[in-house]
């Protein structure tokens, strides 16, 4: 149940979106609707100051599930930094600050602290949350943390993105017997609804590209999602990265799996108060909107931008390769209370089990000027299937 003040904010968001729909002539492309619902200043889901992460929020990410995630990730980060003459860490969209906190503490224990920990965060409210978390739990490390307003230049080190790509706005196309249609959002007395517009030349080109990666044409009625901002975002990564590794964690799949016949309605999902559903037109501004990541397309965009693909695997395999079992055993032995040990055990299970995060979440490694011998991909590497 949403609180009265949250519902009141929802009414302001809806009024804002209706003005935008009217301004563009009655049908707002879904990608732009999603962008505004999530990121519009002062009203968007990530721009407003409501709780989003953890038990009190709308969803839980791997860093909130257990500190084991970031502590294990730290081993891979330390290995990469050790192979560079000098290196820093850059995190895209640091969320609640859980990765930043645990990763810095773990790197400190490994005696491999970066000179700076950079955070590129679009949400002012989340920047505040991140700063307060670090100030409360690791004030001695706060001086190393720098919040950026733009991409750094000539970056050397490790770039991290946990559940960043899935929150990029997606374009929705519907395959028809003739030309595909682009889905848009309309407004009426009954509320927000769907409208269908002619697809652009770019839409048709991307649809053909996805069909090739999938291995066959899409059937009539199939709804296809893709991230139009992905090529530009990847060019930004490539232009910023001078030397190092990019690690991207997200739920998604390679094209042949992602665009399977049974997924003809797409993968668009919304999360509000730990309830998942597939209607992005309800609770705009009050819910997260995501779509599965097409890792085949991410890899193609990376290669087109001049980056190397270093590995692709499931999260469970990545964490095992980085030494999760040893990290868990150390934490379990150090725990002083039974409740802590139970929490560690439950977190381990959630991170690893196929029905939880272990299989649904994938890890893609990109890089420039480094070798491909990364511990996280030593158990299994599926990059040939991209």
Lay out the secondary structure.
Layout: H1 4-23, E1 28-29, H2 30-39, H3 62-65, H4 68-82, E2 88-92, H5 98-109, E3 117-120, H6 124-137, E4 145-148, E5 155-162, E6 171-174, E7 181-188, E8 191-198, H7 201-214, E9 223-226, H8 230-240, E10 241-253, H9 255-258, E11 269-272, E12 275-277, E13 288-290, E14 293-294, H10 295-304, E15 308-314, H11 315-321, H12 324-334, H13 338-352, H14 357-360, E16 361-368
Parallel strand pairs: 2-3, 2-5, 3-4, 5-10, 10-14
Antiparallel strand pairs: 1-7, 6-7, 6-9, 7-8, 10-16, 11-12, 11-13, 15-16
Question: Main attributes?
Answer:
386 residues; alpha/beta; Rossmann fold; 5-stranded antiparallel sheet
What can you see in these coordinates?
The chain has helices spanning 4-23, 30-39, 62-65, 68-82, 98-109, 124-137, 201-214, 230-240, 255-258, 295-304, 315-321, 324-334, 338-352, 357-360; strands at 28-29, 88-92, 117-120, 145-148, 155-162, 171-174, 181-188, 191-198, 223-226, 241-253, 269-272, 275-277, 288-290, 293-294, 308-314, 361-368. With 386 residues, the chain is of the alpha/beta class. It has two domains: 4-52 and 170-226 and 266-285, no CATH class; 62-168 and 229-265 and 291-385, Rossmann fold (3-Layer(aba) Sandwich), CATH 3.40.50. The strands form three sheets. Strands 2, 3, 4, 5, 10, 14, 15 and 16 form an eight-stranded mixed sheet that branches. Strands 1, 6, 7, 8 and 9 form a five-stranded antiparallel sheet that branches. Strands 12-11-13 form a three-stranded antiparallel sheet, with no helix packed on it. The longest helix has 20 residues, at 4-23. The two termini are 41 Å apart.
């Amino acid at each position: 149940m949403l609180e009265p003040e949250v519902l009141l904010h929802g009414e302001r968001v809806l009024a804002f979106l209706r003005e935008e729909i009217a301004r563009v002539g009655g049908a707002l492309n879904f990608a732009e609707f999603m962008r505004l619902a999530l990121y519009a200043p002062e009203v968007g889901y990530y721009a407003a100051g409501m709780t989003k992460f953890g038990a009190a929020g709308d969803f839980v990410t791997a860093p909130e599930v257990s500190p084991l995630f970031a502590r294990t990730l730290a081993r891979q980060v330390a290995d990469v930094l050790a192979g560079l003459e000098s290196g820093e860490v850059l995190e895209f969209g640091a969320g609640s600050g859980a990765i930043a906190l645990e990763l810095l503490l773990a790197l400190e224990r490994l005696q491999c602290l970066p000179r700076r920990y950079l955070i590129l965060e679009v949400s002012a409210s989340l920047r505040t949350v991140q700063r307060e978390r670090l100030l409360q739990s690791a004030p001695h490390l706060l001086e190393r943390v720098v919040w950026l307003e733009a991409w750094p230049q000539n970056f050397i080190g490790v770039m991290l993105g946990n559940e960043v790509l899935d929150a990029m706005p997606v374009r929705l196309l519907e395959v028809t017997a003739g030309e595909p249609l682009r889905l848009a959002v309309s407004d009426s007395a009954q509320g927000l609804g769907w409208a269908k517009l002619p697809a652009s030349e770019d839409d048709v080109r991307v649809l053909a590209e996805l069909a090739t990666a999938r291995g066959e044409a899409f059937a009539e009625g199939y709804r296809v999602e893709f991230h139009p901002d992905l090529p530009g975002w990847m060019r930004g990564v490539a232009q910023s990265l001078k030397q190092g590794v990019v690690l991207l964690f997200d739920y998604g799949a390679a094209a042949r799996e992602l665009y399977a016949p049974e997924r003809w309605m797409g993968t668009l999902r919304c999360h509000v108060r730990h309830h998942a559903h597939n209607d992005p037109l309800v609770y705009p501004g009050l819910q997260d909107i995501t779509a599965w990541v097409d890792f085949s397309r991410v890899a193609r965009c990376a290669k087109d931008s001049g980056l190397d693909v270093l590995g692709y695997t499931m999260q469970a395999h990545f964490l095992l390769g980085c030494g999760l079992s040893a990290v868990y055993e150390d934490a379990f032995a150090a725990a002083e209370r039974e409740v802590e040990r139970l929490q560690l055990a439950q977190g381990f299970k959630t991170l690893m089990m196929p029905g939880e995060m272990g299989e649904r979440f994938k890890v893609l490694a990109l890089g420039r000027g480094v070798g491909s011998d990364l511990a996280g991909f030593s158990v299994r590497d599926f990059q040939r299937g991209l």
